[in-house]
């Protein structure tokens, strides 16, 4: 397969031609959600980014083994390994079993991802189902001399690792910077250095989630789970690891160190990170309390929302920005996305109605090639979508008799347009019908209110004319003392 896709590799800080280790199979691992709360817009951006990558790799002809984990244990209150497991904490507050909490929010995550038309991964492992693999990986790191046991917990020895390798190469940090910027925290006296991180934590007496290990009854650290599960399902070397930019340090940095310490080599060839979503220039996140859940987008029940938004509007809003750029939330941007999406979906419908002519009045091949080249260039969806709008403009011109399309071009354009719009970008055509239904409901409501006003003004001729016209269309109007009601006959 001739390589055409170039992706930005965070490790090398440049775009590289993508060449899989074992073509046509591609190993893709993405850090999935921590299931202790409702999914929000930040979750959606990461999911949509790597759903697009998954779809486009398959479109290019690759077979993709896509692994996206579920973190249902071991995610502490901070990256300094302080505090309590967030799922266990919520379980105590709500008087539930921890796995009840995890399952509740995992179900919610799947529901909203399905609504966003995010494809399910090939494999979706849970951290709690891979405790043995995490213990084994930790033991391997201990055996290689890059970790130590302290007070029943196991910590990765960053300073020892630095003697042989480079800790911080992904994020550009160095150990002296970490040493000067990391303060000693209460309860961290078990560590040799404050920047060491937990591979295994001994459970406090009140800690609900715990497992037996050679070192203590406890639970795995946050970072070890991805190293263990990616190795289990993709091998010790695989193609692409993705996640949000907020995971670059320390999570992905720690993953690299763990893999090198255990196996003597890095596991990942290409690192990909999607950028953050901001509100008024400030990062959206749970820690700042300014996040909007996907459920709130669906209902419109949030002070920052002017209306409810369809999941496809959210998806299209995100695709209009490059995945590596910061995306600033605003109602104006979402409303513009709603209109733009409606235009593209309408063009897809209009395309089916076109009649061919002897020749095309525009070079469609150039526009199609521009879309392909944009996606090949590190998934540049803004450029691809701009070219789709140009093609939509041409479709409407043909429909209005202002341009022509040949039979050959029409036969090629129709399936190509559908494939790019629905299979690659992952948009849904049925939302056009939903939108049309909402518009028609609004028109009907307007007509009925005009009829009611005519009656109140004793303009019975207008009132009867509206009633009779609606009856001819199958809408039966019944007058009541307090207004009216209607039903379809």
Would you kindly provide a written description of the structure presented here, covering whatever features stand out?
- This protein is an alpha/beta fold.
- 47% of the residues lie in helices and 15% in strands.
- It is built from 16 helices and 15 strands.
- It has helices at 41-59, 86-94, 98-115, 131-143, 158-164, 175-181, 222-234, 248-263, 294-299, 311-319, 331-351, 364-376, 381-399, 407-424, 430-456, 460-472; strands spanning 6-9, 14-17, 25-30, 63-68, 147-150, 153-156, 197-202, 218-220, 238-244, 268-274, 277-279, 282-283, 327-329, 475-480, 483-488.
- Strands 4-3-9-10 form a four-stranded parallel beta sheet, sandwiched between helices. A four-stranded antiparallel beta sheet has the order 5-6-7-8.
- Helix 10 packs across helix 11 (331-351).
- The N and C termini lie far apart (58 Å).
- The mean pLDDT is 90.
Helical region count? 16
CATH class of the largest domain: Alpha Beta
Helix share bin? 40-55%
Largest sheet: 4 strands, parallel
In short:
With 489 residues, this protein is of the alpha/beta class. 47% of the residues lie in helices and 15% in strands. It has 3 domains: 6-274, Rossmann fold, CATH 3.40.50.620; 279-428, Isoleucyl-tRNA Synthetase, Domain 1 (Orthogonal Bundle), CATH 1.10.730; 432-488, no CATH class.
Write the layout of secondary structure elements.
Layout: E1 6-9, E2 14-17, E3 25-30, H1 41-59, E4 63-68, H2 86-94, H3 98-115, H4 131-143, E5 147-150, E6 153-156, H5 158-164, H6 175-181, E7 197-202, E8 218-220, H7 222-234, E9 238-244, H8 248-263, E10 268-274, E11 277-279, E12 282-283, H9 294-299, H10 311-319, E13 327-329, H11 331-351, H12 364-376, H13 381-399, H14 407-424, H15 430-456, H16 460-472, E14 475-480, E15 483-488
Parallel strand pairs: 3-4, 3-9, 9-10, 11-13
Antiparallel strand pairs: 1-2, 5-6, 6-7, 7-8, 11-12, 14-15
């Amino acid at each position: 397969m001739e390589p055409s896709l170039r992706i930005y590799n965070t490790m090398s800080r440049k775009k590289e031609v993508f060449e899989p280790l074992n073509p046509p199979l591609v190993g893709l691992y993405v850090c999935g959600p921590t299931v202790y709360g409702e999914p929000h817009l930040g979750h959606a951006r990461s999911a949509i980014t790597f759903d697009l990558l998954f779809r486009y790799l398959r479109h290019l002809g690759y077979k993709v083994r896509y692994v996206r984990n579920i973190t249902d244990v071991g995610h502490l209150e901070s990256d300094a390994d302080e505090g309590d497991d967030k799922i266990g904490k919520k379980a105590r507050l709500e008087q539930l079993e921890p796995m009840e909490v995890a399952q509740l929010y995992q179900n919610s995550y799947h529901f909203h991802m399905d609504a966003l038309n995010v494809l399910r991964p090939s494999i979706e492992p849970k951290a709690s189902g891979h405790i043995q693999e995490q213990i084994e990986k930790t033991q391997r790191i201990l055996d290689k001399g890059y970790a130590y046991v302290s007070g029943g917990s196991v910590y990765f020895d960053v300073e020892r690792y630095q003697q042989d390798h480079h800790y911080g190469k992904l994020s550009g940090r160095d150990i002296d910077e970490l040493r000067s910027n990391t303060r000693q925290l209460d309860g961290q006296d078990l560590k040799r250095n404050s920047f060491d991180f937990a591979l295994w934590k001994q459970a406090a007496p009140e800690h609900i989630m715990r497992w037996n290990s050679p070192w203590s009854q406890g639970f795995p650290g946050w970072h070890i789970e991805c190293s263990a599960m990616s190795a289990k399902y993709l091998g010790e070397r695989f193609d692409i690891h993705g996640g949000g930019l907020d995971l670059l340090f320390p999570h992905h940095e720690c993953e690299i160190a763990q893999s090198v310490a255990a196996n003597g080599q890095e596991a990942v060839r290409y690192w990909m990170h999607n950028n953050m979503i901001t509100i008024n220039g400030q990062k959206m996140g749970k820690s700042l309390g300014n996040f909007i859940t996907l459920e709130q987008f669906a209902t419109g029940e949030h002070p920052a929302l002017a209306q409810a938004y369809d999941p496809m509007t959210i998806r299209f809003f995100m695709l209009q920005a490059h995945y590596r750029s910061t995306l600033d939330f605003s109602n104006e941007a979402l409303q513009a996305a709603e209109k733009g999406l409606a235009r593209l979906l309408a063009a897809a419908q209009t395309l089916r109605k076109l009649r061919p002519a002897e020749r095309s009045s525009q070079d469609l091949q150039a526009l199609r090639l521009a879309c392909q080249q944009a996606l090949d260039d590190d998934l540049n969806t803004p450029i691809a979508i701009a070219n789709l709008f140009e093609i939509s403009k041409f479709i409407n011109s043909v429909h209005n008799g202002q341009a022509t399309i040949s039979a050959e071009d029409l036969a090629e354009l129709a399936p190509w347009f559908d494939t790019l719009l629905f299979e690659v970008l992952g948009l849904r055509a049925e939302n056009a019908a939903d939108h049309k239904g909402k518009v028609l409901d609004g028109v009907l409501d307007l007509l009925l209110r005009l009829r009611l006003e005519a009656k109140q003004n004793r303009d019975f001729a207008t009132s009867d004319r509206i009633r009779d016209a609606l009856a001819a269309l199958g809408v039966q109007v019944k007058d009541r003392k307090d207004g009216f009601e209607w039903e379809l006959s």
